[in-house]
């Protein structure tokens, strides 16, 4: 893999939530009820956006968190502070999920810190807008697939020997998998792969008592889009095309990840939830 800092420099992705205005809303909206008491969760992309909101909500529900992120140290430290304020433990793990050795290290560090893994949230992703397919470089194509789908294979492979019956895997796909996106050809293709991976992995693991589901957010206000993941034209009207008329907030998506992680969804596997502002898809 090429140097991470060089890769990120091109579009400043995934971006710092600390520099974003207005700030995304990550705060849990209700009191916890111990739905994840005693659990340990690995959450990728947990430094900001949806990942931070999921980490905050999981912590409120009793889980300790491994916060996995690329290079935004300040954001990751803030997510750790949020988790610890909820009375739970958190570790931060910095690196590139497109690297299998790093994914192995994520699992090793989580086990060293907490001794178990109950929930794996594959949330990290990258996207690059291109108006024409000929504008997508080979390097970008490889990086997008490495970050968005290869990482999920790598992490599940590393975590699988440590997942016991009752464990849950939740993958982040996208409304673009169902609708398509004229500007996000490579990103949308990875999200299609993630949905197929979710359904197939569910079939593979459900007999061992491990559930695999996914969440397909619509346009959500996170650092990903304003920091280079959307064209200026699209960003100007971000989320306006949804039936609800605007983008969602991370704390409107996090409860879907909680539902799929806890016993409330004990009879669900291979499914996708759609917090997308009212857009009807064939899910």
Biggest sheet, open or closed, and with what strands and sense?
A: 7 strands, parallel
Side by side, the strands of the main sheet go 3-2-1-4-5-6-7
- Count of discrete alpha- or pi-helical segments spanning 4 or more residues: 10
In the CATH scheme, the class would be: Alpha Beta
| CATH architectural grouping | 3-Layer(aba) Sandwich
Give me the Rg, rounded: 17 Å
Instruction: Name the structural class.
Output: alpha/beta
The helical percent reads: 40-55%
CATH topology name, in short, is: Rossmann fold
Following the backbone from N to C, one meets helices and strands in this order, namely HEHEHEHEHEHHEHHHE
Describe the structure concisely for a colleague.
With 283 residues, the protein is of the alpha/beta class.
Question: Can you describe this structure?
Answer:
- Mean pLDDT is 90; it is low at 1-12.
- This protein has helices at 4-9, 49-60, 73-85, 100-114, 138-159, 176-179, 185-205, 225-229, 232-236, 250-261, and strands at residues 40-44, 64-69, 90-94, 119-122, 168-172, 211-215, 272-273.
- Strand 2 (64-69), helix 3 and strand 3 form a beta-alpha-beta unit.
- It is an alpha/beta fold and 283 residues long.
- It is built from 10 helices and 7 strands.
- 51% of the residues are buried.
- Helix 2 packs parallel to helix 3 and helix 2 packs across helix 10.
- The protein has a 7-stranded parallel sheet with strand order 3-2-1-4-5-6-7, with helices on both faces.
- It has one domain (36-266): 3-Layer(aba) Sandwich (Rossmann fold), CATH 3.40.50.720.
- Helix content is 41%, strand content 11%.
């Amino acid at each position: 893999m090429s140097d991470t800092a060089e890769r990120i420099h091109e579009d400043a992705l995934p971006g710092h939530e600390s520099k974003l205005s207005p700030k995304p809303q990550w705060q849990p909206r209700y009191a916890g009820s111990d739905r994840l008491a005693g659990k340990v969760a690995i959450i990728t992309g947990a430094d900001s956006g949806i990942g931070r909101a999921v980490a905050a909500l999981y912590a409120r529900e009793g889980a300790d968190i491994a916060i996995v992120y690329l290079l935004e140290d300040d954001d990751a430290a803030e997510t750790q502070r949020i988790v610890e304020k909820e009375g739970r433990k958190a570790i931060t793990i910095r690196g590139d999920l497109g690297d299998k050795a790093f994914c192995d290290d994520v699992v090793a560090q989580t086990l060293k810190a907490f001794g178990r893994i109950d929930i794996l949230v594959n949330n990290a992703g990258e996207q690059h807008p291109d108006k024409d397919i000929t504008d997508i470089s080979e390097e970008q194509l490889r990086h997008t697939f490495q970050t968005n789908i290869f990482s999920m294979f790598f992490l599940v492979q590393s975590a699988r020997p440590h997942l016991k019956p009752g464990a849950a895997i939740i993958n982040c796909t996208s409304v673009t998998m169902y609708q398509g996106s004229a500007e996000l050809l490579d990103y949308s293709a990875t999200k299609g792969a993630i949905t197929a991976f979710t359904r197939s992995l569910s079939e593979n693991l459900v007999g061992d008592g491990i559930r695999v589901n996914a969440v397909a957010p619509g346009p959500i206000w996170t650092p990903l889009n304003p920091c280079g993941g959307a064209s200026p034209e699209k960003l100007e009207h971000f989320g306006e095309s949804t039936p609800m008329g605007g983008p969602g907030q991370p704390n409107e998506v996090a409860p879907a990840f909680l539902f799929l992680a806890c016993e409330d969804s004990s009879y669900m596997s291979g499914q996708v939830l759609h917090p997308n502002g009212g857009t009807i898809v064939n899910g």
